[in-house]
Design goal:
Membrane topology: Multi-pass membrane protein
Number of helices: 14
Radius of gyration: 28 Å
Oligomer: single chain
Shape: elongated
Subcellular location: Cell membrane
Organism: Streptomyces lavenduligriseus
Protein name: Type II secretion system F family protein
Helix content: over 70%
Number of strands: 0
Distance between the termini: 61 Å
Main location: membrane
Length: 297
């Protein structure tokens, strides 16, 4: 039995070493110019200068921060942590778990970026309404005021060019604003389109309507910020509960209990690890659903 156990441990160690080599090879492939042919073809088709005939040198590829920002996100830390734990615990299971966590963390990061972009668009709409109201009140014509306001409050994305073109060449400004309002966070442009249509068709005061719209949008933004501040405690509690198992493993290691060997190399440990991971994922999902439901109210 001791010989069989020793053989199993040697096989697990070889698998872990192979997984480490595979991850390092993937890193070299990503940094070594995986997209080089595509980049060179795009430059040639666009009429740009011809670049070097080979992939970038290793020092430049490693030191260029733009390459890291473009290809790597914080989610890859899960794979790195899994690799470290796999080498420490002589098991391939942490590598598999870390690789499975990469797409989940990527989705979380992209959702956070989408939320930040939505908030930036909402702030840009509020700034546009405020600047436009001031320009109209100063005596400018609505079209010229919108052009100046759009230049001073950039941040509406690609649809801003359509709004500027409609205002400059006498196009359908309310239609362009309604089209721009389809972007997440820019829904307030629907109110601006309504104010514009009423002011043009019925001769009503555009500045007064913009002031009321600006006040409503600011109140809505302040309400969202207040709700987010109230939910900060719940978010912190969920993060703390998620980190507690890691702290338990560190405490057990400090006491000399070797919890990684028990969890990764015994049947009872694997069962506890699986059950704990399932309960952990279910708890995080439920806590996230509660917080999102409160934000949506």
């Amino acid at each position: 039995m001791e010989v069989i156990g020793r053989m199993v441990m040697e096989v697990i160690g070889e698998v872990s070493t192979g997984a480490a080599v595979l991850c390092l090879g993937a890193l070299a492939w990503l940094l070594g110019g995986r997209h080089y042919g595509v980049r060179r073809a795009r430059l040639l088709l666009a009429g740009g200068p011809v670049v070097a005939t080979g992939p970038p040198a290793w020092p430049q590829a490693l030191l260029d921060p733009r390459r890291w920002r473009g290809r790597w996100g914080a989610e890859w830390a899960a794979l790195g942590a899994g690799l470290v734990i796999a080498l420490w615990g002589a098991s391939v299971i942490p590598v598999v778990v870390g690789a499975a966590g990469v797409p989940v963390l990527r989705r979380v990061r992209l959702a956070r970026q989408a939320r930040d972009a939505r908030e930036r668009r909402a702030d840009a709409v509020i700034a546009l309404c405020g600047v436009l109201a001031g320009e109209v009140r100063a005596g400018r014509q609505p079209g010229a005021a919108l052009l100046r306001s759009a230049r001073e409050s950039a941040g509406l994305g690609d649809a801003q060019a359509a709004v500027v073109a409609a205002a400059r060449f006498g196009g359908d400004v309310p239609g362009a604003l309604a089209a721009a309002a389809r972007q997440p966070g820019a829904e307030g442009l629907l109110g601006l389109a309504a104010c514009w249509r009423v002011a043009v068709d019925q001769g009503a005061g555009l500045a007064a309507g913009l002031d009321r719209l600006d006040g409503a949008l600011r109140a809505e933004r302040d309400g969202r910020a207040d709700l987010r501040a109230q939910l900060a405690g719940a978010r912190a509690t969920a993060v703390l509960l998620a980190v507690l198992p890691v702290l338990g493993l560190l405490l057990g290691t400090a006491m000399g209990a070797d919890p990684l060997r028990v969890l990764l190399h015994t049947g009872a440990g694997l069962g506890c690890l699986t059950a704990g991971a399932v309960f952990e994922a279910a708890g995080m999902w439920w806590a996230t659903r509660i917080v999102r439901g409160a934000e949506a109210v």
